[in-house]
Amino acid sequence: MKPDVTFIEITNHCNFDCSFCPNHVLKRQKGFLDIAIARKFLSQLKKAGWDDVLVDLAVLGEPFMNKSVFDYLDLCKEYGLRVYLVTNGALIKPQIAKKIFKKYSKDDIEIEISFQTPTETTYQRRYNKQHTFFEYWQQIKDVICAKYKYKSDIRIILPITTYDFMLSVDDSVVCEKELDSLKLFENEETQKRWFYDYLNEMETFAQELIRKNCFKWRKIAKNTEEPWQHAEEFGVCMHTGKQNAYEVLTQNSSDKIIYYRLMPGIFTYFKKFGLWTRKVDYLERLLKEDKDIFVYTEPRHGEEKCDLVGNIGILSDGTIVPCCLDYEGEVSLGNIEDTDITSEQFQEKLEKFAENVLICETCRQCRSKVFILDTVSTDDERQEITAYGNNWNSVEVEEDGKKFRWTKESSDVYIYAKRDWKSIDLDMKVHPFLNGAMAFLTIEQYDIVANTFTMRKKQDLKLNVINNNRVTSVSCMLEKGSFYKICINTPIFEGGSDLRKLGLMVYGIYAH
């Protein structure tokens, strides 16, 4: 399996302590990668003929915390491998910047400065006491100045994040309320105003650099439908003009990244990413600003492929991991000191693992759903259940606009009871194929200490099309402040153009 990108963690030490990064809950020992181990890994990439693989010098950690960072950059250059250097930029002081921009070219390195939290308020989530936000922003500007001072063609990327941060891209996070922890701006309109202020500030900065003869601004063609005419200059997928930049850039996805050119060789884009991990200690710190919430991670089972497997990396102790998300090295594929990643045996092992990553607890957790549920009590007469878990088909819409989901064989939903309830109500419809069949519903209560569910109710349901205009009620006492899993077990039939497994048509589930 040839990787698109590979990761070499030259250190897992970091000068920041960002709330959205798991470095603060890291259990493995912190250290620095031996240069000889890095050489062995790179030589194997070369041996396999993977000359066009991009090398990222991090899994966790800040590369410039390793005082020998230039030895690793030189090593990658020696093997003809291009580096994508992700850094927070705070340690790129004048002498380091000079060495980078005089010694290397865009063929050797591209730099991404993680400008994820672009305001004074959101910068507090970086937990960096060494620099105020304005000092940090000035540091980034100094790096840009150094690029022009030494006439470097190295590209610098400044990613920023969307106002709803992780929830905009991660559909595996089901959230019942707005979370301060996962928002960078009050709302989208606030973000839009900030974005254009940011572009204006960078234009003013660019004009200062032009007056200092750092560069001459060259106009580019307005036709954004033919981005590749600027591919050599930009080295990016697409570009856009200022007038509609916000609307275009916020449409970014994992397979299409649109960049805005701030000035020659300097680009920005909206970077979307999901939760790094679903581990409890990570989530607790990430969400510590928010009160009145209950967080549950639903285990994932079955079989599932993963496209990330194959983008292998090595941690600072030489452990080989299948992707960059295994920051603890729990899915160890061996150690590079005694493993040949180009061997037939290793490749067969990797391919077999990629076919079903859910055999591994770490991957099951990575692919699981996270439910962040509102716990504020209510006086309402019923509580709608919105936390749909395993084994549901996608939402469909009928001609009259009503939305529904098909169950599969065993479909789960979850509820945090906001008051005492006496029944579960199912607004559902039975397909004629299942008329007369038997289904059953189970209700289980969660024990947070034992991390297990205990059966509270099991109710048989005889499916009948005659009852399609009625709500089916199952009596069961749900205690206020408790968390429950409700499982609908039904026979199935194959239906639809894609012959999916279909059970009941569910329009809504409520506690009453």
What do you see in this structure?
It is built from ten helices and 26 strands. The N and C termini lie far apart (53 Å). Residues 220-239 have low confidence and may be disordered. The longest helix is centred in the middle third of the chain and has 24 residues, at 188-211. With 512 residues, it is α/β, with parallel strands linked by helices. Helix content is 21%, strand content 25%.
Q: How many E-type strands?
A: 26
Q: What is the CA-atom radius of gyration, in angstroms?
A: 26 Å
Bulk shape? globular
SSE-based structural type:
alpha/beta
Biggest sheet: strands, sense, closure?
10 strands, mixed
Low-confidence stretches: 220-239
Give the helix level as a range of percent.
10-25%
H/I helix tally: 10
Summary of the model, kept short:
The chain is of the alpha/beta class. It contains ten helices and 26 strands.
